[in-house]
């Protein structure tokens, strides 16, 4: 009986990893669709989002069953709670990726803001790196690695502020690009939010290892940090 | 929190065989401490050391320090009747004497020479109330205790222990022979009783330990593996062995 608990836990952990990899791909695809204004791809992504949601619901159902039927405690309990909480963060990340695809579908002009496209590509690249490191830290139950991932969120926050500044100055220069610029603003905002959810993933990895609920978001721990970072390192 | 019972370097031998391998546990006043571990790990054996029940077994040697307050439980001058009044015990199977509820609960006081009917009446009522069984037996105090249900019998036995005003109550799986409703009643009773008494309970029911115990001690093969606050034990124990045992992943 106890063997099957571990077996089931392993299956759920695999599902979680699969979800994580899919979500990373979703971010890649949605950014590609946005920067290349690929409406067909954006439509596909929006239609596919329900898949991640279904996976999350299945994982939740299984985890709740395990809690109700097996009454796990100690490390088994923490593993299940971590799966439940972290998978819902992954699901939110997937939602944001699909929101980016929805924004893409709102674009009704051929004109672009190339330097912001570049900034968005950079942001997405960094975010996917963080997400993959986070999945790695989860597999190895490596809370130190998870904390390092969380610290990187300050770079995402900084890239967000810089991209926002670029977008605003574009709005000031080109009145005809205001509508497009609002779409750009939404996209960088979604990317910034994805960074916060990746920080949450790290917090659950720490909970899994230690039983402690911690705040790892560098911008929340030290609200002045972004301003400092921008002042010391404006690029 | 004040410590009420302190044990140090506890060893117990059955003849040549060492069954408890030397550990320390300190019990706090007005707390419930649960002793858990697989069968044969020594938890009942240890429990019985605390009021010298092992003295009754041949070929058994207990060493180490056992102190209630400043007094050495194993001092040659210890009066065993006094000790077991001070440290009472409730067993796995309800074991009322085969006579009336009233006589069961009054038994200890009568042995101690109390004859005043008024005093006995008061103590019987108070003890049965504390054991949360008064309402169920008050109209049948002269009925044979064995005619009640298992759960009621167990609470009558608890009342019998309470009547002599112990400081500490030892319980050896007091609910394992009872159905879940009766068990829940006993658990509620224990949570009330800890306001006035200190309770040390051996249990095989992990959820019971997590529901009622302030601290939990996990024993394995005669060793104390971990002794911690129950909330810590069940969320984030220090030892992997503890986590494995609590999740039933042993062996």
UniProtKB/TrEMBL annotation, chain A:
Q: Which UniProt keywords apply?
A: Cytoplasm, Phosphate transport, Transport
Gene3D superfamilies in UniProt: Phosphate transport system protein phou homolog 2, domain 2
Chief location of this protein within or outside the cell = cytoplasm
Ranges for the PhoU domain? 18-103, 120-205
Query: Looking at the UniProt record for this protein, which Gene Ontology cellular component terms does it annotate, in alphabetical order?
Result: cytoplasm
Per the UniProt record, one Pfam family is: PhoU
Q: Where in the cell is it found?
A: Cytoplasm
Q: What's the domain of life for this entry? A: Bacteria
- Provide the GO biological process annotations: intracellular phosphate ion homeostasis; negative regulation of phosphate metabolic process; phosphate ion transport
Q: What does this protein do?
A: Plays a role in the regulation of phosphate uptake.
Give the family this protein belongs to, as stated in its UniProt record.
Answer: Belongs to the PhoU family.
Spell out the protein name for this chain. Answer: Phosphate-specific transport system accessory protein PhoU
From TrEMBL, chain B:
User: What Gene3D superfamilies does the annotation carry?
Assistant: P-loop containing nucleotide triphosphate hydrolases (3.40.50.300)
Show the PROSITE patterns listed in the entry: ABC_TRANSPORTER_1, ABC_TRANSPORTER_2
Q: Name one Pfam family in it.
A: ABC_tran
Q: Is the keyword Transport assigned to this protein?
A: yes
Q: Which GO terms describe its cellular component?
A: membrane
Molecular function (GO) terms for this protein are: ATP binding; ATP hydrolysis activity; phosphate transmembrane transporter activity
Residue limits of the ABC transporter domain? 5-246
Which regions form coiled coils?
none
Q: Which GO terms describe its biological process?
A: phosphate ion transmembrane transport
Record keywords, A-Z? ATP-binding, Nucleotide-binding, Phosphate transport, Transport
The molecule here is called Phosphate ABC transporter ATPase
């Amino acid at each position: 009986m106890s063997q099957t608990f571990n077996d089931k836990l392993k299956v759920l952990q695999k599902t979680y990893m699969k979800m994580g990899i899919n979500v990373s791909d979703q971010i890649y695809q949605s950014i590609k669709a946005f920067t290349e204004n690929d409406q067909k791809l954006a439509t596909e992504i929006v239609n596919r989002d329900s898949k991640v949601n279904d996976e999350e619901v299945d994982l939740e159902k299984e985890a709740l069953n395990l809690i109700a039927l097996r009454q796990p405690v100690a490390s088994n309990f923490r593993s299940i709670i971590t799966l439940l909480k972290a998978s819902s963060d992954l699901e939110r990340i997937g939602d944001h990726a699909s929101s980016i695809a929805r924004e893409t579908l709102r674009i009704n002009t051929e004109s672009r803001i190339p330097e912001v496209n570049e900034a968005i590509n950079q942001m997405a690249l960094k975010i996917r790196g963080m997400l993959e490191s986070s999945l790695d830290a989860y597999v190895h139950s490596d809370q130190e690695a998870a904390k390092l991932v969380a610290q990187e969120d300050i770079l995402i926050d900084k890239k967000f502020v810089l991209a926002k500044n670029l977008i605003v100055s574009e709005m000031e220069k080109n009145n005809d690009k205001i509508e497009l610029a609002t779409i750009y603003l939404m996209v960088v905002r979604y990317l910034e939010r994805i960074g916060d959810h990746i920080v949450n993933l790290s917090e659950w990895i720490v909970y899994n290892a230690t039983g402690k609920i911690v705040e790892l978001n560098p911008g929340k721990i030290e609200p002045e940090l972004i301003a400092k970072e921008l002042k010391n390192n404006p690029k | 929190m004040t410590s009420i019972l302190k044990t140090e370097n506890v060893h117990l031998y059955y003849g040549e065989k060492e069954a408890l391998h030397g550990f320390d546990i300190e019990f706090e006043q007005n707390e419930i401490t649960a002793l858990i571990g697989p069968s044969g790990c020594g938890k009942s054996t240890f429990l019985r050391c605390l009021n010298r029940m092992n003295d009754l077994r041949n070929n058994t040697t207990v060493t180490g320090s056992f102190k209630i307050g400043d007094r050495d439980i194993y001092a040659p001058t210890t009066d065993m009747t006094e000790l077991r009044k001070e440290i009472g015990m409730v067993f796995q199977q309800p074991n009322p004497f085969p006579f009336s509820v009233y006589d069961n609960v009054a038994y200890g006081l009568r042995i101690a020479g109390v004859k005043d009917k008024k005093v006995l009446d008061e103590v019987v009522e108070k003890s049965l109330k504390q054991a949360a069984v008064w309402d169920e037996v008050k109209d049948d105090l002269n009925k044979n205790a064995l005619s009640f249900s298992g759960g009621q019998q167990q609470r009558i036995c608890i009342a019998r222990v309470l009547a002599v005003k112990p400081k500490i109550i030892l319980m050896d799986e007091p609910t394992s022979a009872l159905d879940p409703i009766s068990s829940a009643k006993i658990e509620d009773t224990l949570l009330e009783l800890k306001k006035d008494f200190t309770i040390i309970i051996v249990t095989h029911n992990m959820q019971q330990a997590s529901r009622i115990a302030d601290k939990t001690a996990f024993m394995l093969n005669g060793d104390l593996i971990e002794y911690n606050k129950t909330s810590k034990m069940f969320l984030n124990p220090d030892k992997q062995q503890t986590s494995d045992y609590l999740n039933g992943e042993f062996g």
